Amino acid sequence: FMGRERFNRLLELIPADSTVLGIDEHTALIMDLQSQVCKVVGNGEVTLLHKNHPNRTSDNPGDLEALGLNDIARQRNAHVHQYSAGQTFPLSEWFPIQIPEPGTGIPQEVWSLALEINRASEIQDYPPEEVLVLAQVRQTAREGKDWANADAIRDQIMALGWEVKDTTDGPELIRRKP
Fold first, then answer.
1. Per-residue model confidence as pLDDT tens digits over 24-82
2. What is the pLDDT of residues 85-142, one digit of tens each?
3. How far apart are CA 139 and CA 26, in angstroms?
């Protein structure tokens, strides 16, 4: 949770025409760059503050007023959208994105660094994003005492080669031994 005061300070540090994307806890935004479609998954909402096109009416205008987001948008000559879990929308609502051809647009030193980091993460055996998302969804189910769903998600995680150890700090993911 960022809080309104910290959020306002952040906005002061970035250009007024910047797109600001907020993702609630226990929520993810999947951006399919090939189809140019975004999908909200999890338990919360995704909030977008931007200037790209004329405003659409929000599904939750009262929520935006209560959070002060409409005031912030007016100050920045922008507008706000909120999307709930399960909703999809075109990526073009935010900003035009151009996918570079392989080997173009990104300097070689950046590619080299990205490959080095990727190799290091493989050595350290970090769980893939899919497993991390499932672990978070499982944790939410456990917090809601939805044990059947939590067990089913644990089985999905195991099928992907990982075990979940529940700790006081949250789930710990351990690579299963073959």
1. 888 999 988 778 888 999 888 888 887 765 544 444 444 445 456 767 777 777 778 88
2. 899 988 877 766 666 676 677 778 887 887 787 776 555 567 888 999 999 999 999 9
3. 9
Does the pTM of the predicted model rise above 0.70?
Answer: no
Residue 26, sorted as left (phi over 0), alpha (psi -120 to 50) or beta, turns out to be left
Closest CA to 136 of 178, 170, 100: 170
Alpha-helical (H) ranges within 4-125 are 4-13, 61-67, 69-75, 108-124
Cα 37 from chain centroid?
14
Structure tokens at 21: 């994307």
List b or e across 55-85, with b for residues whose CB sees 16 or more CB atoms inside 10 angstroms. Answer: eeebeeeeebeebebbebbeebebbbbbbeb
Helices (H), 106-176: 108-124, 129-143, 147-159
Q: How distant is the alpha carbon of residue 141 from its chain centre?
A: 19
Positive or negative, the Cα torsion across 133, 136, 142, 143? Answer: negative
